[in-house]
């Protein structure tokens, strides 16, 4: 099973909002160069945090309704969700250390 799961509008509520684990949602687009730069970092972190944090990807061009629901205006944008609530949000390409800090914060609050 891959560490990062693509989710559609049909799966979003069950896979993200109702997840027992905290979830990091990566809103991305195929044409977005920074999205492609951070993708390997998220893959690594998803493996490192397996069983503690889930990582989901939402393609904004294919899942417009989800992007609109969360007012996503720039890519990549990352939502940190616990118990169905957004507790943190960042945008743009970041170094691994920034993502690790947000992952740790998500776990600490869980």
Distance between the termini: 24 Å
CATH topology: Glutaredoxin
Helix content: 40-55%
What about the largest sheet? 5 strands, mixed
Number of helices: 4
Stretches where pLDDT is under 50 for at least 5 consecutive residues are none
Number of domains: 1
Order of helices and strands: EHEHEHEEH
Task: Look at the structure and give the CATH class.
Answer: Alpha Beta
Reported CATH architecture = 3-Layer(aba) Sandwich
Mean pLDDT: 94
Look at the helices and sheets and give the structural class.
alpha/beta
Classify the oligomer. Answer: single chain
Radius of gyration: 12 Å
| Strand content range | 25-35%
Would you count the extended β strands for me? 5
- Overall body shape: globular
Give the full name of the CATH homologous superfamily. Answer: Glutaredoxin
Topology of helices and strands:
Blueprint: E1 4-6, H1 9-17, E2 23-28, H2 33-48, E3 54-59, H3 64-69, E4 77-82, E5 85-91, H4 96-108
Parallel strand pairs: 1-3, 2-3
Antiparallel strand pairs: 2-4, 4-5
Helix pairs in contact: 2-4
């Amino acid at each position: 099973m891959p560490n990062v799961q693509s989710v559609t509008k049909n799966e979003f509520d069950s896979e993200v909002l109702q997840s027992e684990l905290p979830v990091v949602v990566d809103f991305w687009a195929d044409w977005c160069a920074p999205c492609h730069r951070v993708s390997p970092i998220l893959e690594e972190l998803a493996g490192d945090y397996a069983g503690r944090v889930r990582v989901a990807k939402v393609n904004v061009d294919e899942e417009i309704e989800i992007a609109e629901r969360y007012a996503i205006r720039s890519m990549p944008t990352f939502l940190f969700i616990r118990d169905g609530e957004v507790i943190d949000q960042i945008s743009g390409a970041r170094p691994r250390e920034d993502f690790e800090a947000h992952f740790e914060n998500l776990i600490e609050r869980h």
